Amino acid sequence: EELRRGDTPIHLIAAETSLLKVLAQHAGTAVKRGDLLRLSRISRGERTGDVQVTRLRRKIEDDPRLPRFIQTARGAGYLLRTD
Q1: Which pLDDT band, with edges at 50, 70 and 90, does 24 fall under?
Q2: What are the φ and ψ backbone dihedral angles of 44, each rounded to 5 degrees?
Q3: What Å distances lie between residue 32 and 9, 26, 40, 46, 73, CA to CA?
């Protein structure tokens, strides 16, 4: 599987791919941090999941500090916006 931004391929590690798949399956809906970790099979704890989300944002967002696609839903988790 390959993620592309225009004509440019984006290399994702397994954890990033897994996170993105889970978020895509629930696009537009917040996924709780614990559920995101469980569904993506990341087993090192919530902080590890946060780090992976940050790394994924760096790869796919124009400005990772102001994410357009992977957003934090305060108190609810993360969500993928597709619009």
Answers
A1: very high
A2: -95, 5
A3: 29, 11, 12, 10, 9
Q: Compute and round to an integer the Cα radius of gyration of the chain.
A: 12
pTM over 0.85, yes/no: yes
Burial of 26: CB neighbours in 10 Å, binned 0-12, 13-18, 19+: middle
Per-residue confidence (pLDDT) for residue 6, from 0 to 100 = 85
Structure tokens at 23: 């978020």
Pair of tokens at residue 62: 């124009």
In this prediction, residue 5 carries a pLDDT of: 84
